[in-house]
């Protein structure tokens, strides 16, 4: 059984269930035509347009639009409040009733798909920008794991959105590349002699159908561009975050190395204190000035060694400066360039 909602040219809606075989015979279709194997597809069969847009499954005939298996898919609001007025022309779909019914039905479905993709993009776009703004702070010493988790989840959603946009674009591009497929989508042209006569007199319905598909292809292209720009911004921000973290990590490593060198310097001259602290008699302990002399020598020697180690560290960590070009070489290069220019002018 197929639960279907039927819309006629005037926007009247009826909902009922019908057996699959009865629906096949009514539409002159085969069972394979309504299997909806592809996630997104637009095909023409026996003067019918079979559409699959993610969860939406529909069949457009010259006189009606059938939406199949719509229960539990979150489409009820759109079907009841928006689709019927669009099919009736109240929202200006393609402006007038001069074009056949399938144009209004196809535009309503494509517009719904584009709006769905746009809504998904609007949902993740501000969240990603806010997280990136907080993570790229140069004062950041460590990345907030909770924000990184949210960013990872939204990046996954963004990748899925980019894939859905690409599939939607490819389905339209596949039709735009085939003139015969565009002609087949103009189902009224082949069922109504008057429409066929109008088409032969200059009202080219195939051209109008091509313009319709190109319009939504360009809208999908803009969504795809925005998605790619947002992913590029995420990649650039990740690079900035890693640079900031590496910078702070280098500062901490340098400070740790300086403290280690200072400790080494004090420990080296601390051996003198250990030697004098032994219970050995000598003539030095009798002179009260020797204590201050040895202590000062220890601190002075430790400071000199620590300073020497710092200068050694600075020379090896600072980037090397490229050698300067001698003045004579510069003049020769300028003269040679000038000679080339003059020879070129000659």
Automatic annotation (TrEMBL):
Belongs to the CorA metal ion transporter (MIT) (TC 1.A.35) family. GO terms for molecular function: magnesium ion transmembrane transporter activity. GO terms for cellular component: mitochondrial inner membrane. Keywords: Ion transport, Magnesium, Membrane, Mitochondrion, Mitochondrion inner membrane, Transit peptide, Transmembrane, Transmembrane helix, Transport. The chain crosses the membrane at residues 259-278, 290-306. PANTHER family: MAGNESIUM TRANSPORTER MRS2 HOMOLOG, MITOCHONDRIAL, RNA SPLICING PROTEIN MRS2, MITOCHONDRIAL. It is a multi-pass membrane protein. This is Magnesium transporter. The keyword Membrane applies. Its main location: membrane. InterPro entries: MRS2-like. It comes from the Eukaryota.
